[in-house]
Amino acid sequence: MTITKGAETLFEFEAPTTVASSTDEVAPDPVVTFDPESRIQFFAGMVDDPFFFDVPAELLYRDSRIANQINPAVFRRGRDTFAGYYVLAIALSVPKGRLLGENAPMLGFCGYTERAETTT
């Protein structure tokens, strides 16, 4: 990972990612890279879907509204329909002091990802 300010390179360090697997039943342990000099943390890999929603409860509630017998008790289920579904995520933590200086009222970010070509 390279952190730049204009054309000047401020920090550069390796940031490995969590290896993705479509066959695992649970997400692999995350690999978080920490650079002690810059205090920047980086993560890229599979994580449990952060969206929480109880689809069956919502459908039951909708049916109760259609029947004009509103029943909010169906939401007591509290089950996460999306638990166990994984998404690819990228997270970057940068100390505030590294981002904002006296003459820097604005913050810009540009990033890209690459995937190594694989053959089977």
Report on this model:
The chain has 120 residues and is an alpha+beta fold. It folds into two domains: 1-45 and 88-115, no CATH class; 50-83, no CATH class. The protein is 13% helix and 25% strand. It has a three-stranded antiparallel beta sheet with strand order 3-4-5, with no helix packed on it. Strands 1-2 form a two-stranded antiparallel sheet. A hairpin with a 4-residue loop joins strand 3 and strand 4 (40-48). The longest helix has 12 residues, at 55-66. The two termini are 29 Å apart.
- Please identify the structural class as seen in this structure: alpha+beta
Overall structural domain count:
2
Low-confidence blocks of residues? none
The strand line-up of the biggest sheet is 3-4-5
Overall outline: elongated
Straight-line distance between termini: 29 Å
Rg from Cα: 22 Å
| Count of alpha and pi helical runs | 2
Fraction of residues in H or I helices: 10-25%
How many β-strand stretches?
Answer: 5
Average pLDDT rating: 75
Strand and helix order: EEEEHEH
Largest sheet composition: 3 strands, antiparallel
Strand content: 25-35%
